[in-house]
Amino acid sequence: MSSRMAYVRSFIANTTSIPTLDKEIYEIFGICLGDGCLSKYYSNYDNAIKYEVKFTGNSKDDLEYYQNFLLPTLKSKFNIKLSYRIRKDCNAINMNINNKQVFMFFKNLGMPIGDKKNKIKLPKKIFNSTSDVKASVLRGLLDTDGCIFARKDEGYKYLHLEIASGTLGFLLQLKKLIRQFGMPAYVHWTEGHGGNVLIRGNKNIKIWMDKIGTSHPIIKGRYLKWLKAGILLPKGLVAQR
Q: What is the pLDDT of residues 103-130, one digit of tens each?
């Protein structure tokens, strides 16, 4: 490794901030549990081990969310330079943080390294935390791996909220955490395909929005449409006049 590269790495490490564990950080942790992953690998080019935190979203649905919330929050909390890349071949938005300190921060919070399936879980301390911390984690998960919708057979009048995962134990943890807010939650699971934790009913979704909320402009916009019109159509479907 060149002396210049060593200097650059040392400078980045010295200027990175380690944030306090506040509501915004726990929301980022929830986002990381949904859209994020940690990677540790050897780089032949740098002749060194690389530590990477990667966030991947949908470039059509998540661009504004990444631009206006996730990216500026990460930059502010960790004092790092950060940008994103759009992949048109798969409609993805990628945001990579190549920084060992940030990597270790999320690892110490409870993020697994590599493939999250069957390894992802909520740390026990989350269940004993304040309502604000629990809400922040759930909000980050809704905004990345969740959605709100209404069913055609119910006239699109009654709201449902779901968060998907390929790990059953994680879904059971989410059900337990959601029920601490007074909302009945249910796990739907199909072996080999994954599942979701589901909340049904307008009253319960209103509780979610009041106590937990969303930072995602599309989810927020769809909920406001339902409040105004009393129905929530699938994306792209226009109400008949």
A: 999 999 999 999 999 999 999 999 999 9
What phi and psi, each to the nearest 5 degrees, are found at residue 200?
A: -120, 150
Domain membership of residue 167 as a residue range: 127-231
Question: How many domains in the chain?
Answer: 2
Query: Please, what is the average pLDDT of the chain?
Result: 92
End-to-end CA distance of the chain: 67
2 and 109 housed in the same domain: yes
Q: Does the pLDDT at position 8 exceed 80?
A: no
Question: Cα(24)–Cα(149) distance, rounded to whole angstroms?
Answer: 26
| Boundary (domain end) residue, out of 63, 86, 116 | 116
**Cα separations (Å) of 64 from 126, 197, 215?**
28, 26, 11
Helices (H), 110-238: 124-127, 131-145, 168-179, 202-211, 217-229
For the chain, the C-alpha Rg in angstroms (whole number) is: 19
Q: H or E element: which one contains 65?
A: helix 63-65
Distance (Å) of CA 195 to CA 103, 177, 180: 28, 17, 21
pLDDT of 239 > 60? The answer is no
Residues 77-100: tens digit of each pLDDT: 999 999 999 998 999 999 999 999
Residues 6 or more apart whose CB falls under 8 angstroms from that of 222 comprise: 148, 232, 235
Structural element, H or E, at residue 159: strand 159-165
Is the Cβ–Cβ distance between 161 and 146 less than 8 Å? yes
C-alpha 151/C-alpha 133 separation (Å) is 31
Going 59 to 136 to 123 to 51, the CA torsion angle's sign is: positive
